[in-house]
Amino acid sequence: MGELLQNDHDEITARMIGELEDKFRVLDQYAFEKSGEDVIQIRIHQLALASVLVNIHGRSRFVLVRAHATLGECYLSNEYHEQALEHLTKAKNFNTTVANDVPDSREFQIHILTLLSKAYLEKKMTKDALNLLDEAASLNADVVEKQHISNAAILQGFAHVYVSTKEYEKALDYYSQVWEITEAEHGLKSEYTASVYLEIAKIQMKAKNISEATSYQRRALDVFLDIEFPKHDFVAEIAIKLGEWQEMAGEYGDAKDSYRSAESLYEYTYGVIDKRTAKVKRSIALVLLKSNQYDEALQELREVEELEKTLFGDGSLMVAKTYKIIASIFMLQKDFKNSHDYFIKSLRIFDSNDSTKNVKEVKAKLRAVKEYLKTVLQEGEGEKGVTGDDITSTSSKGNSPFRSSGKVSSKGKRKKKLSFKS
């Protein structure tokens, strides 16, 4: 009888353990579908399940190690650094107690140490971060070859530490090694290699090597476009960042091409009538304006004007800002009638929205238009049909037609060898 009862107890316990482990796995899958605080709550629930499995049902403490590490990593990615340190430290300490019993514990300890170094770095504790990375590198050297892909995360950790201390050359040296390992593992045309290019570009920008920064940002963009990476918003943001850097470098033609790439991605994903498309078209117009291509800039802004009217309404501040830019371009072209009309349209909207700063600016520009035209008229060189009354009038006539523009693809040459020197 006692043996029968024991068998029933064992069967019930085994069923309970199985149900708990199944629930743990289901939560794992559920976490991949969520983000932010939702994931944290899922990982906390998993830690509770792990505690029951280990402390009550005698499962391996490695289950608890993984749960603490996963929760710590989640806290770290959501910038809860104190909580991340707490759980990652527990994972590290628990893991040392199972090292002789669990074959995977050594490799997992390397992962924990790398995460811990990130947490310490976020707390500005660079010495502790470096010590943890040294320990991770030493452990990994005993397990795998120097060129193994698992070394990439450790090397990246070192690079991030040196970026934080503004030792950019050291950081770039480490990323050179990361690139070699990643390229050997995944090839040149992979999202992983492209991601390394992005990191190198950021460091070069911090080091004020803008030419090198744009070069690596371009390489990353080319790879993501070539492999048709499905996260179009992500790729568009890369193109926009490249365009901004190219503008800073005075490379206006290249900047326009980069913005065009983003425009194409947004149009493909969201359609022409979308706020993201309108915003990048505005960037295209402004870069055309910087390169003194006034007619092309006007064409682009007229498209923006129509898009913004549809998206935000005729009386929106976005439309008013576009009117103001269009008016300024007409002013540069000495087309004072159109300049005046567009300034008046923008003024009406700014005034109705109590945008005091913009009202003041537009009134100042209207006075400048009036004074300039007075001078021209006095010299007898006024435009046909334009009078002083036109300048002081508050009427506005007609809207510009909506015109389409061609797309410029984003392509560039690639070099396999990395060169970090500007």
List keywords for this structure.
single chain, 422 residues, mainly alpha, 75% helix
What is the N-to-C succession of helices and strands? HHHHHHHHHHHHHHHHHH
Mean pLDDT: 87
Number of helices: 18
Instruction: Sum up the overall morphology in one term.
Output: elongated
The poorly predicted ranges are 382-417
Radius of gyration: 30 Å
DSSP strand content: under 5%
Share in helix: over 70%
Walk me through this protein's architecture.
This protein has 422 residues and is mostly helical. Helices cover 75% and strands 0% of the residues. It contains 18 helices and no strands. Helix 7 packs antiparallel against helix 8 (168-186) and helix 12 (252-270) packs antiparallel against helix 13. The longest helix has 30 residues, at 2-31. The termini are far apart. The relative contact order is 0.05. The model is unreliable at 382-417 (pLDDT under 50).
Can you summarize this structure?
The chain is an all-alpha fold. The chain has helices spanning 2-31, 37-55, 62-77, 81-96, 105-122, 126-143, 151-164, 168-186, 191-206, 210-226, 232-248, 252-270, 275-290, 294-312, 317-332, 336-352, 356-378, 388-392. It starts with a helix and ends in a 30-residue tail after the last helix.
Structural topology:
Elements: H1 2-31, H2 37-55, H3 62-77, H4 81-96, H5 105-122, H6 126-143, H7 151-164, H8 168-186, H9 191-206, H10 210-226, H11 232-248, H12 252-270, H13 275-290, H14 294-312, H15 317-332, H16 336-352, H17 356-378, H18 388-392
Helix pairs in contact: 1-2, 2-3, 3-4, 3-5, 4-5, 5-6, 5-7, 6-7, 7-8, 8-9, 9-10, 10-11, 11-12, 12-13, 13-14, 14-15, 15-16, 16-17
